[in-house]
Amino acid sequence: MAIFIRKRSHGGAHVPHRKHTAEMATVQMPPPATVVLPMSQHIGAPCKPVVKVGDPVKVGTLIGETTGYVAAPIHASVSGTVKAVGEILLSNGSRSMAVTIESDGKMEPDPAIAPPKIKTREEFFNAVRDSGLVGLGGAGFPTHVKLNAKNLDEIDTLIVNGAECEPYITSDYREAIESTLDIVHGMKYLKEMLDLKQVVIAIEANKPKAIQKFYEQLASYQDINVQTLPQSYPMGAEKVLIYEVTGRVVPEGKLPGDVGVLVMNIGSVGFLNRYLKTGMPLVQKRLTIDGGAVAEPKNIFVPIGTSIADVMAFCGGYRKPPRKFLMGGPMMGIAIPDENYPILKNNNAILALDEEEATLKQPTACIRCGRCVRGCPMKLMPLELDQAREAGDTDALARLKVGLCMECGTCSFNCPAKRPLVQSIRMGKAMLRAAQAAKKS
Amino acid sequence: MEEKLMVTSSPHLQDKASTSSIMLDVCIALLPALICAEIIFGVRVLLVTGVSVAACFIFEYLLNMITKRPQTISDLSCAVTGILLAFCLPVSIPLWMVVIGDFVAIVIVKGLFGGIGQNFANPAATARIVLMLSFPVQMTTWTAPVGADATASATVLDMLGHGTAGEMPSLWQMFIGYQGGSLGETCAAALIVGGIYLLFRKVIQPHVPLAFIGTVAIFSLLTGRDPLVQILSGGVMLGAIFMATDYTTSAITPVGKVVFGIGCGLLTCLIRFFSSSVEGVSYAILLMNILCPFVDRLTRSRPFGGAKA
User: Fold this and answer.
1) Domain CATH code at residue B219
2) How many percent of chain B have pLDDT more than 70?
3) Which residue among A371, A381, A413 places its CB closest to the CB of B300?
4) Residue B149 falls inside a structural domain
5) Is residue B10 part of a domain?
6) SS3 of B193-211
7) Which domain holds residue B66?
8) B25 confidence band (pLDDT: 50, 70, 90)
9) What does the mean pLDDT of chain A come to?
C-alpha cells in the first residue's frame, strides 16, 4: 500500500458550523407575484433585454441576450407578463437594467424548450452558454467561458467543489444528497466531453452522508473519485482546494487552468446534467434560508428574481427582528441594506441575522499575536498589510502582495483584538490600484 | 422593521478568543508557579505579587485618564505584567521598589510608546533590569526556601559564577524550585505546567521556548557546563515560557520565532558565562526585543503561489 503524505494547505480557521438546515429536504417555493431579473447576474458584460412591457413570457423564455463573449443569457423564471423594463440598484451598489415579470402563477414552461443536441465540443460550449449557467459557488463567472479554456488540452483534472465550508449554508449539501445521480452523470459527461484524466469531487469531512453516497455511486467508475477534505475554513477556496486535491500551486496572477485544473461548484455540475436532459435553462436556485431572525429556516427552490422579502415570508417571517441580511455565508457574504433585492443566479444562501449574531465587537489595538498570519491560507501577513494601509505605504502593500488576498475572512475571524483586517486589506487594494494608476498616467 | 439594518464588511463572524481571554489564560498559566512560590518562599510572595498587580492596574488607569486615551485595563494585560515583574524579584524586596518597577513597566515601557501592542521591549523584563541597576543590593538579597538552612540562600548562578559559598541543591530540588532566586522563577515544574497549558490553549507556540531552552542546553554542553543546571537555574524557564513569548515584542513567523529563541538562548549564555553578571535572561530578552523588527523583516513568510519579490 502506498503511503500518502498529504499536502495540507496553510492556516485556516475553525469556524462554527451552524448547519441547522442540513437535514431539511429542499422544498419548492410557489411563484411570487412578481420577479425582478437584473441583466447583470454574472461577471462580464450585462445582457440586453429582448422583451418589452406587455410581452407574455413562459418559464425559460430568453429575456436578456448576451452582448459579449464573457456573459450568460437571462431567462424568465416564471410564466406571466413583462411589467417593467428599467434600471434598478443592485446589492453591490451598481445599477443594472432589469426585467420585472408579473407571474400568472401557472409556471408554464416555454414550449420551445428541448434538450440540446450536442455532437461536438463547440456545440457543447454553445449549449452551456445558452443554459445561462454561471459559477454557482458565488463568483458568477460564465461557465462556458471557463470550460472553453485556451489551453483545454493541457487541463487534466476537474475538481467538483462540494466543500461548502461557510457556516449555515447547506444548499450544496442538499444538492449532493438529493441530486447525487445528476452530479455523477454530469461529472462523467464532463470527463468525456473535455477529455480529462480525472475528476474528483471534494467534500468536507463534516458531511459524511454525502461522502458515503458518492463513494457508493462512484465505486464502478475509474478516474472519478471522492476526496474527503479536512474540516477547516476556507477549504472551498479555489486555490486551497486545488492544493489539497492535486498538490498544485496556482501561481500569482494565474488561473487554475494554468496548472491543468478546472474547478466547478457541485451545484453547477448537477444543473448542467439536468439541462442536458431537459433543456430548461437556469431559472431557479436552491437556497439555504437561515439565521437567528428567521422563523422557519429552510432549504428552498426559488425562482430567480424572487425578492428576499417574499422568500422570508415563505419561511414563516421573522422570529426576532432581523438586523443584518447576508447574501451568502457569514464569512464572505455581502450585507445588503434592505430585503427588497432579488435572488440572483449565484446566490446560495440568504441569512437574516438577529441582533446578537449581527453585532460585531469593537476593534482594539493589535497585540501582534500572529493569529492572522497563522490563519492566512495565502500565507500573507494581514497585520503588516493593516499597518501599511494605515500608513498609506503603497510600496509595502505591493511588497506584501495585498493583491493575493482572496478576502476569505479568516484573519478577521481569528483576530482577538477584533480588528476588521479584511476591510482594511480591501481598502489597501484600492489604495494600491489608485497609486499604480496615478503612476501610469 | 423598526430598527435599522446593519451593513458591515465581511466577515460577519468573530472567534470567541479576545485579548482579555488570552491575558486571562496567561494569568491562569502563571497560577501554578505562584502557588509553588508561596509554598517555597512563604506568604510574602502573595503580598509582593498583589502589590505589583494592583500598582500596574492603577498606573495604567491613571495614564489612560491623564492622556485621555480609551480605558484599557479590562484587557488584563496589566495583570500579566504585574505578575511577571513580581516573579523576577526577590521575595524580600521592599514594596516601594516593586511599585517603582511597575511604574517603569506600565508607564515608561508600555504606556509612553502607545500602550498595548506598541511597546518595543518586554515591560516586565525591562523593569527588572531598571530595578537591578538601581537597587543592586536589594535585588540580589536572596531568601532561602522555607525549611532550608540559611546558607542555601545564594542562587545556583551565584555559586557557579562568583564562587559564592553555599550548598548546591540537587537537580530534583532545582526542578521543584527549592533553590535561591527570584520568587517566581525557581520552580521549573510549575512553569512547565503553565507552559503546557498555554500550548494546549494555543496561546503560545512551542518555537520560542524550545529554541531558547534548547540553545542554552546545547551551548552549555559545548562549553563544558551541565546543561540541566543551566536551564533549571535563574530565569531561563520563566523567561523562555512567559517573557520571550510575549506577542508584542517577539517574532511573528515560525522561522522568526526560532531565530528569536536561539538569539535569546545564545545571549543568555554569553552573558552568564563570559560577563561579570551571573544572570543574563532579562538582558538577552531585551536585546532580542530590540532586534525583533529586523528578525521579522528577514523571516517573512512567502505568500502561497507568490512570485519571488
Assistant:
1) 1.10.3430
2) 96
3) A381
4) no
5) no
6) HHHHHHHHCCCCCCHHHHH
7) 19-143+154-297
8) very high
9) 94
Q: Does any CB of chain B come closer than 8 Å to the CB of residue A323?
A: yes
Which residue in chain B has the smallest CA separation from A323?
B5
B19 touches chain A (CB under 8 A): yes
Which one of B21, B302, B307 has the shortest CB-CB distance to A379?
Answer: B302
How, if at all, do strands A298-303 and A27-28 pair? parallel
Residue B13 lies in a domain: no
CB contact under 8 A, A252 and B303: yes
The amino acid occupying position A399 is: R
Q: How many domains does chain B have?
A: 1
Per residue in A88-129, pLDDT tens?
988 778 899 999 999 999 999 999 999 999 999 999 999 999
Is pLDDT at B152 greater than 70 in this prediction?
no
- B239-271 tens-digit pLDDT: 999 999 999 999 999 999 999 999 999 999 999
Mutate to test the interface with B, among A368, A386, A400, A412 (most CBs of B within 10 A): A368
Best A17, A242, A364 residue to mutate vs chain B (most B CBs within 10 Å): A364
Measured N-to-C along each axis, helices B77-87 and B44-66 cross at an angle, to the nearest 10 degrees, of 140
Domains within chain A, CATH numbers bracketed: 27-113+281-357 (3.10.20.600), 121-278 (3.40.50.11540), 371-440 (no CATH)
Query: Does the beta-carbon distance from A249 to B304 stay under 8 Å?
Result: yes
In a domain, B14, yes or no: no
Position B135 confidence tier, pLDDT thresholds 50, 70, 90: very high
Q: Which of A32, A33, A28, A38 minimizes the C-alpha distance to A342?
A: A38
